[in-house]
Amino acid sequence: MNDLEIEVKFYLPDIPSVRERILELGAECKGRVFETNIRFEDASKSLMRKNSLLRLRKDATAKL
User: What is the pLDDT of residues 4-55, one digit of tens each?
Assistant: First the structure.
């Protein structure tokens, strides 16, 4: 499995204009989603040493 998630954060000095442009491009606003993140690691921090992360992410619609 080669699934890779990359999360990037940007500082946006003018959020309303960015939001307007995204909507002009055809995006649909679905509202805010609150999620719970549970991170797993062993006592020797073997994942962290490999720059890896095991995370279970849950939102209101997720079924675990």
Answer: 777 888 999 999 999 999 999 999 988 888 889 999 999 999 999 998 889 8
Distance CA 52, CA 44 (A): 13
Confidence of residue 63 (pLDDT cuts 50, 70, 90): low
Structural contact between residues 61 and 35, judged by C-beta atoms closer than 8 angstroms: no
Burial class (CB in 10 A: 0-12, 13-18, 19+), 14: exposed
Q: Please give the single-letter amino acid code of residue 25.
A: L
Asked if 35 and 56 touch (Cβ cutoff 8 Å), the reply is no
Radius of gyration of the chain (CA): 17
